[in-house]
Amino acid sequence: MNPIDPPEIDPLEQALHAARALVLADLAAGAVAEADVVSLVEDSVVQRRWWVEQWPEGVEYVAGLVAQDVQDALLERYGRWPLCPVCGAGDPHALEVEPELGPDPHWVCHQAGVKVAAVGTLGPATGGMPSS
């Protein structure tokens, strides 16, 4: 290897780092990227690394799966995230990741039937979790 050639990056590691960055960007947009929440992202990345090692064809699904893992963990500990910025009336509800298992994941409001943003591109309006 030529010393000036960049090292090759393993596609699995590249996908995991990208998934981590996308989900952290969404958490930061909602101002919920606290240390304990970031730990939830790291836990998911560890679990998904094992999952993709078992099923390498699933590498393109990692970002959506990490987003869903973090969303589920946040629901258990803190409440719904990310809140829907589309529906102004009624009870606050969370966006969902679509497709559940597929490439190019998006946050979707099922009540309004609209795509809100690609995973990793939520804006600040999709806020945090409801205060307890």
Explain this structure.
There is one protein chain. With 132 residues, the protein is mainly α. Helix content is 42%, strand content 9%. A 3-stranded antiparallel sheet has the order 1-2-3, with helices on one face. Strand 2 and strand 3 (114-118) form a beta hairpin. Helix 1 runs antiparallel to helix 2. The N and C termini lie far apart (56 Å). Mean pLDDT is 87; it is low at 127-132.
How would the blueprint of this fold be written?
Blueprint: H1 11-29, H2 35-54, H3 62-77, E1 96-98, E2 106-109, E3 114-118
Antiparallel strand pairs: 1-2, 2-3
Helix pairs in contact: 1-2, 1-3, 2-3
Considering the chains and any ligands shown, give keywords for the structure:
globular; 9% strand; disordered C terminus; three-stranded antiparallel beta sheet; 3 helices; 132 residues
Q: Kindly name the structural category.
A: mainly alpha
Q: Overall 3D geometry?
A: globular
Rg measurement, Å? 16 Å
Low-confidence stretches: 127-132
What do the pLDDT scores average to?
A: 87
How does the major sheet shape up?
3 strands, antiparallel
Strand proportion: 5-15%
Side by side, the strands of the main sheet go: 1-2-3
Q: In whole angstroms, how far apart are the ends?
A: 56 Å
Helix content: 40-55%
**What is the subunit organization of this protein?**
single chain
Total of DSSP H or I helical runs spanning 4+ residues: 3
Tell me the total number of β-strands.
3
Helix and strand pattern? HHHEEE
